[in-house]
Amino acid sequence: MFDIKEELKKLPSKPGVYIMKNDLGEIIYIGKAVNLKNRVRQYFQSSKNHSAKVISMVRHIAEFEYIVVDNEMEALILECNLIKKHSPKYNIRLKDDKMYPYVKVTVNEDFPRVLMVRKVLKDGAKYYGPITDSYAVKETIEMINRMWPIRKCRKILPRDIGKERPCLNYHIGQCLAPCDGLISKEEYKKIVDEVIEFLDGKSSDIIKRLKEKMNAAAENLEYEKAAQYRDKIKSIMSIEERQKMSNTGLNDSDVIALSRALDDALIQVFFIRGGKMLGREHYMINNTEGLSRSEIITGFIKQFYSGTAFIPKELILEAEIVPEEKDVIDSWLTQRRGNKVLITVPEKGEKKRLVDLAYKNASITFEQFGDKMKRDEQRTRGAVAEICKTIGLNKKVERIEAYDISNIQGFYSVGAMVVFENGIPKRSDYRKFKIKSVVGANDFASMQEVLQRRLAHGIKEDKKEYWKLPDLILMDGGKPQVSAAQSVLKTYGLQIPVCGMFKDDNHRTKGLLYNDKEYYMPSNTEGFKLTTRIQDEVHRFAIEYHRKLRENAQVDTVLNHIPGIGEVRRKALLKHFGDIESIKKAEVSDLLEVECMNIKSAESVYAFFRRKGAKQN
């Protein structure tokens, strides 16, 4: 039995993080402290200075834990990580977890490329962003590829130089074929430097040089080359004009303001990079009742900038960071960025105008989307809570995994796993399983194999996010499928609740089977609708994989007979064209667009189907 009074006496007078739990062992609040002894004891002293929210939380505290660290900075980082991992009920929660795209120039490679990525790595490459509009990123990269002949392939150079003939991009003038040694590293670098200048916003220097080249080409009567320079100048000037329209005169900054009502708040962020407004985004914050605007903004900054890859040079805020956390947050952000981060709360001028604009946008967005966000909450987290309440499951459920088996009379038997986190599909964690140990149509044994392989990964690779163990398992089927899952869980000594999703005579979702008892939810409830979505999704995913295996097997029997086409090229052809009919119709130029194809192999495929077609005629 946890004795709170006795445990309070044992608290050390050191910095650290404290973790409050309820009588079910669920984490309900996480906080940091410069002095754990003083901070944690405050919760259990006179409540006259406590907010209603703190009073409610203290009533539910059954026990607490703490982690001692060396300093307040470490406490802040640990607090941010634990809140993100556990999403405690009484902490303010940042619902959105967006990963913005960046433009990446791989200057860490001998022959750099320009890519769109969503993660910033410490790999020596150059990153531009984040940019909220992924379409704008793609458009920028396409435009760069049209204007500068840099490579698009994933070959490792110089290792792969001369191994294959240049691809189609070389033949149409969109690459200078470094893969075949047709341009030196030094000459290629000059082109990449010009791309970097463009991305850095130094367009005027590029235009000046292009005009000189255009005039020189015209004087030498090279009118076609002069026209190419002219078109490139027009494109750059057009983009420059658009950027001027959004120029703020500031450097890399985030402008942050909020609108609120009752227990919810909406944060609006304007992203300014290189003095240009690149976009804006809004974030819904829960559990803000009784908190000041400063406390909400402080909580948002800690959660948002612990997850985002880019830390701007300046944060322009509507309200001050709470005084007791200002210094440590300032040091933390500066450490993450690598140089000083300025935090300002402007009272006049351009910065104040931007803060006011962000506030207006936050209010408008809250008014427009507040109700929608509430409905989305009911459809997702609310629906999960409804399912748990229906089956009497008294635990916090975030990650749900669902499983299904698909085969035709035992052939091409496959298993599928789909993942829903907080009621939302997490497609990056979906997994497919080709059944290896079971012969024939034995769904029970097939399901056991799938669960064994999945749980083995979860235990062995528990640090990998996509293999973390679920809070609830749903099986497409009734008692046999549930029993198959439970037998595997018992083998691994795991206690994860398992439900069967059974259907009616019309193959529609009917209810859930849990602990040998059937549970039904009205069809108009969010819990029932989520169950239906999960069951339909896992069935769809299994059927698609099964169909793909059958189609690939059929196609492979044809592609196996083409001279010079091995397994790697067969897979590449299928991935690129999708089906055998498209491969049959492809011209040599189309076939050359496949990454691993060269002239010889493309002509072999082309000739094979033309000869085959002639024989059939």
How would you describe the overall organization of this protein?
This protein is of the alpha+beta class. It has five domains: 4-91, GIY-YIG endonuclease (3-Layer(aba) Sandwich), CATH 3.40.1440.10; 102-245, no CATH class; 253-369, Nucleotidyltransferase, domain 5 (2-Layer Sandwich); 399-549, Nucleotidyltransferase, domain 5 (2-Layer Sandwich); 560-616, DNA polymerase, domain 1 (Orthogonal Bundle). It is built from 19 helices and 20 strands. The protein has helices spanning 4-9, 36-43, 52-60, 72-86, 134-147, 168-171, 185-199, 203-219, 223-245, 293-307, 323-337, 349-391, 443-460, 479-491, 526-559, 567-577, 580-585, 588-591, 599-616, and strands at 16-21, 27-33, 63-68, 93-94, 102-105, 114-117, 126-128, 253-261, 264-273, 276-286, 314-317, 342-344, 399-408, 411-421, 424-425, 431-434, 472-476, 498-503, 509-514, 517-519. The strands form four sheets. Strands 13, 14, 15, 16, 17, 18, 19 and 20 form an eight-stranded mixed beta sheet that branches. It has a six-stranded mixed beta sheet with strand order 4-10-9-8-11-12. The termini are far apart.
